[in-house]
């Protein structure tokens, strides 16, 4: 499975945008980029996914580099409820899903 | 909104005992998964299940583990003879055909003493 690299932790102020980076230099052409997050004491929760084009949904935006070797999850206005571990995951097989270590996001009031 | 449920929320068992963790996936979903998360570590894939058989399994999912969909609603994970290192949170997830998103349950905390 292609490997992803994320910073261990990041900090943001409430109501400000947050850009969470992910490097995936060994991504293959069929790998989708998925982002999940895990709030404290909860199961992982889907955030967004994409293949080549940038994507927007009600939770976040996903910016994918042209060479697809990196991507950035964008939370437009961080709230205290967004404090979580954010996982960037690559997969080409919907029956296998490998999480990395993720980025722990701390949101300051 | 439909959700994945898991019971019990916390299970304490003695080493060597069998445990069954139960999950009720979202009703129209067809793909089912188990993951585990040892305290302070990352979420690890265990097994995926479709059409009443295992689709994929990780190296963690050895002969001590089994999964079953005994009826139309439940999806279970059985550990035959628990070890101390099986202590972890176990998450069930489900997915519908054509859907990219896996929906996770709240987890069962398994403590092996």
Q: By helix and strand content of chain A, what is the structural category?
A: mainly beta
Parts with pLDDT < 50 across at least 5 consecutive residues of chain A: none
Order of helices and strands of chain B: EEEEEEEEEEE
Bin the strand percentage of chain B. Answer: over 45%
Helix content of chain B: under 10%
Q: What integer is the average pLDDT of chain A? A: 92
Write the layout of secondary structure elements.
The complex is a heterodimer of chains A (about 110) and B (about 110).
Chain A: E1 9-13, E2 18-23, E3 32-38, E4 45-50, E5 55-56, E6 61-64, E7 70-75, E8 84-91, E9 103-108
Parallel strand pairs in A: 1-9
Antiparallel strand pairs in A: 2-7, 3-4, 3-8, 5-6, 6-7, 8-9
Chain B: E1 5-7, E2 10-13, E3 19-24, E4 31-37, E5 44-50, E6 53-57, E7 65-68, E8 75-79, E9 88-95, E10 103-104, E11 108-112
Parallel strand pairs in B: 2-11
Antiparallel strand pairs in B: 1-3, 3-8, 4-5, 4-9, 5-6, 7-8, 9-10, 9-11
